[in-house]
Amino acid sequence: MAGQVNLAVGCLVWIEDPEVAWIDGEVVAVNGQDIRVLCSSGTTVEAKSSNAYPKDPEFPSCGVDDMTKLAYLHEPGLLQNLKCRYDVNEIYTYTGGILIAVNPFRRLPHLYDNGIMQQYKGADLGELSPHPFAIANSAYRQMINEGISQSILVSGESGAGKTESTKMLMRYLAHVGGRDGGKAATGERSVEQQVLESNPVLEAFGNAKTVRNNNSSRFGKFVEIQFDRSWRISGAAIRTYLLERSRVCQVSDPERNYHCFYMLCASTEEVEKYKLGNPRTFHYLNQSNCYELDGLDESKEYTSTREAMDVVGISTAEQDAIFRVVAAVLHLGNVEFTKGKDADSSEPKDDKARFHLKMAAELFMCDEKALEDSMCTRVIVTRDETITKCLDTVSATLSRDALAKIVYSRLFDWIVDKINNSIGQDRDSKHLIGVLDIYGFESFKTNSFEQFCINLTNEKLQQHFNQHVFKMEQDEYTKEEINWSYIEFIDNQDVLDLIEKVQKSFFPFVTNLNFSADFVDLFILYS
Ligand SMILES: Nc1ncnc2c1ncn2[C@@H]1O[C@H](COP(=O)(O)OP(=O)(O)OP(=O)(O)O)[C@@H](O)[C@H]1O
């Protein structure tokens, strides 16, 4: 859009600003490609006309509830609209059939009560103010009217509010499709209640404090809500993707490891039972100086996580087993290595390392020597023989961390399976609504491989968004025979090539861990 409009004195424009992103003003002089702009802040700036974007003089002061109503669809125009709405507490805005949510960072309970849910029931998309309830309602209606399953994608940067939005979508679906009365009368928990109640458990093991978000989901989640012939919820399944495994043994300041580690260390009884202690004494936690979260009592969190586990059908014995593994992972991280007797070999460094090795083995319920060997040696199987090769201290440490990551991610998968078994799936269901909450990414100098994958998938989503919304608008204009210059939407080949490369290089490794099915699905979803 920039540079395509002839600017004359008196035109209103947007100019990029390094501090506030965009500033608006009026063109007061034009000299070829150079323009002088008197900004609304009172300053005068010189700019190239090719870098200026036209500003709509008739832009309504409270903005518009659908971006496609804007005169100019460029970045400053979209941001201005979102900001105007945000200033009057309107955090939701449509772009065609897509809902944009701006994180309010404070509770707005009046937006989500039962009365509001009731209002959206049956209303057409666009009839009422933009809202996640409207999106969920539209998916539910379309499923009924067209008889086909629906999916809702929730995407955005870390801390943008995806999980909160997902919870609102689920609450609405539970409201319109739930079996109120029925099971509740018998004291049994309904499917929708169980799906909502599984959140605290998943968050305890899959969420962590990051720079952006104190409760950041470090995994992607696809919740499938299944419906019966009378369009009532009859089953559900939670599928999780791409748990950030590297966080188990690598945490950068001021972030934290997964919440469950700190909760466990705060429970006096368990600390004694599992020979734990202050989080500062564990290598997997003390790489960062952040141990506490403002306003959060970890020992209370531990109790509520166990209560939430009761609710989703995880027995007390299973809960004990889960936390035993969490404690074992902490002990494992403290097993340091020193050079062994043979060349390029290694062994536990000292008595302290031996103690943690013994504890880890005890808690994993495995043989101590076998656990040591699994870290200090590598077994190579050839056609003719089996060779056991010693590992030096660096390789043994890498083996230890790999083991911790695999154990933790398997534990997470086990918990998800357990929740799914308890909720129960309706194998006969022909219709479902899927909600995909793909976890947010942050751009750091050294992103982990998991973050790299997420960035790729989000980039694909972004492309999908651009193509879908603006292509839809173009089609609409064509239908109405409005003169509209075509934009050609070309898939970003670089991104496609990169995804292909990642798939090829990553799958053999992933297959070893039995995660291939999830990855294939994920990539199919976005490819
Ligand atoms: N609609 C909302 N109302 C009130 N607070 C919100 C809302 N959306 C987000 N927040 C606040 O922002 C925080 C971060 O939101 P959320 O956890 O949903 O982000 P996210 O996009 O899922 O992040 P990540 O990808 O890191 O998991 C929440 O803990 C909450 O405090």
Automatic annotation (TrEMBL):
The keyword Ion transport does not apply. One of its GO terms (cellular component) is membrane. Gene3D superfamilies: 1.20.58.530, Kinesin motor domain (3.40.850.10), Myosin VI head, motor domain, U50 subdomain (1.20.120.720). It comes from the Eukaryota. InterPro entries: Kinesin_motor_dom_sf, Myosin_head_motor_dom-like, P-loop_NTPase, SH3_Myosin. ATP binds at residues 156-163. It holds the Pfam family Myosin_head. SUPFAM superfamilies: P-loop containing nucleoside triphosphate hydrolases (SSF52540). PANTHER family: MYOSIN, MYOSIN-6. Belongs to the TRAFAC class myosin-kinesin ATPase superfamily. Myosin family. This is Myosin-6-like. It comes from Cucurbita maxima (Pumpkin). The gene is LOC111474800.
